[in-house]
Structure formats: C-alpha cells, structure tokens
Amino acid sequence: MAHRILVVDDDPHIRDIISFALEKAGMVTETARDGGEALMRFRRHPPDMIILDIGMPDTDGLAVCREIRKSSNVPILFLSARDDEVDRVIGLEIGGDDYVTKPFSPREMVARVNVILRRATPLPVPDEAPLSHGALTLRPLLHTADLDGTPLDLTAVEFAILKVLLARAGAVLSRDQIMTAAYGGNINVSDRTIDSHVRNIRGKLAQAGCSNVIDTVHGVGFRLGRCTSGS
Q1: Calculated CA dihedral for residues 196, 198, 202, 204, nearest 10 degrees
Q2: pTM of the model
Q3: Cα–Cα distance for residue pair 84/94, rounded to 1 Å
Q4: Which partner for 150 in 7, 37, 137, 208 could form a disulfide, CB atoms 3.0-4.6 Å apart?
C-alpha cells in the first residue's frame, strides 16, 4: 500500500512541487494550507508522515508539531525558508525527524522522506533479535523499546540511533557512524542534528528512570553505558 503523506505549507506552489515529486515516487499526498487545517486533517485521517512548514501564519509548524506529539509519533519533516540553526534545533528537540531548508531539491526531498519512512516502518528481518543491555531492551521487529518494562516513546530516527548504540553498547560511535545508521549513506545532516536527537533520547531515558546513560566522548562521539532501573 502506498504511503500517505500530509504536506503542510501556506504557499500553494510549494505544496504542488512537493506533492508532484512524492506522487511521482509512488506515494499518495494530502495537503493543508495552514496549521489549523493540518491538525484537522491529521485527526480525521492520520497520515504515514507529515511534511510541515515552520513559518506559517496563525498556527506555525512548531505549534502544530507540539500538538501532534501529544498523541502521536508520526514522522515529521520540517520545512523552513530560513537556514536558522535555532529553528532547526527547536524543531528537532520538540520531536521532528528531519529538517529541509527552502529552496530544496525535490529529489533530495523524496530521498529524505524515503529514509524516514524506512525507519518508521522497518521491513521484518528474521535475524533481528531483541537487543538488551542492562534494563534497556529494544525489539527491532516490533519497533518498540523499553526500560525495565517502561515503554520509551521514540521517533523513528531516535529509535534508529538508539538501536545502533545498543547494538554496540560500550563502544564509542562517531557522529558519522550514527548518521549513517539513522539516515542512510546518501543523506547528510549536521552534527547539531545528531546532538539534538541524542539529547531527546537522553531526556526520554531520564523520564523512564535512567539518567546519563549515553556518554559524550568529546571529539569522538557517543557511547551507551549500562543502565539499571532507577539509576
């Protein structure tokens, strides 16, 4: 079944460009011209993914994302007319999966959408057994993770990052290694993007009862330590 993408932007030309590119790639699109319409369409028929412009009048994309994250982990790719690191970091910290700056290449847009969708709906691989380290358990086939039975509410990219850290628990992984695992070899993102996702994972682990389990090795990358419940 074709993936259904909700495209949200106040510029009809941008909506048309994105919709055409995605539909040419075999996806189905629905569009919204502002934040209020986006939330209405999301609630009526939740999509597989949302492409969400940040700079809209009335209800902007960040506010829409915050509202959606109250009830759903549907993948969200942000769009912005400004290459502003503050917007980028805030967008990722509140639950965005990726960020594209206008003007953009439709081909790159489709590539990023495909990468995120693959992470959100992984193909069942028979040899992907559950990964465990201390109180932390991740089940790739079910796409679930928990800390001593407490579910971790992770986005698709956060799940992919935690998976590679858990698969090599105790080893130091560079940001490039983490980026390749989370986004695929054809997509490049900034170090700040990876740092924002790791910060989100740390926060969710802390809420579940395990703080400071992901160590920063300055100048190198990150390492997953052993976590016990309540640590």
Answers
A1: 80
A2: 0.61
A3: 16
A4: 208
Backbone φ, ψ for residue 112 (5° rounding): -65, -40
Domain 4-120 matching CATH 3.40.50.2300: the answer reads: yes
| Tokens encoding 16 | 């048309």
HSE, CB side, 13 Å, CA atoms: give it for residue 79.
23
Q: Torsions phi, psi of 84, nearest 5? A: -105, 120
Q: Are 211 and 205 in contact (CB under 8 A)?
A: yes
pLDDT tens-digit readout, 55-85: 888 888 999 999 999 888 899 999 988 766 6
Q: How confident is the model at residue 125 (pLDDT cuts 50, 70, 90)?
A: very low
Q: Position 132: which residue type?
A: S
Task: For domain 131-224, give its CATH number from 1.10.10.10, 2.60.40.1120, 3.40.50.2300, 1.20.1740.10.
Answer: 1.10.10.10
Q: Which amino acid is at 78?
A: F
The torsion angle over the Cα atoms of residues 16, 22, 24 and 29, rounded to 10 degrees, is -70
Where are the CATH 1.10.10.10 domain residues in the chain? 131-224
Quick one: tokens of 170? 């105790």
Q: What is the pLDDT of residues 156-182, one digit of tens each?
A: 889 999 999 998 888 899 988 888 877
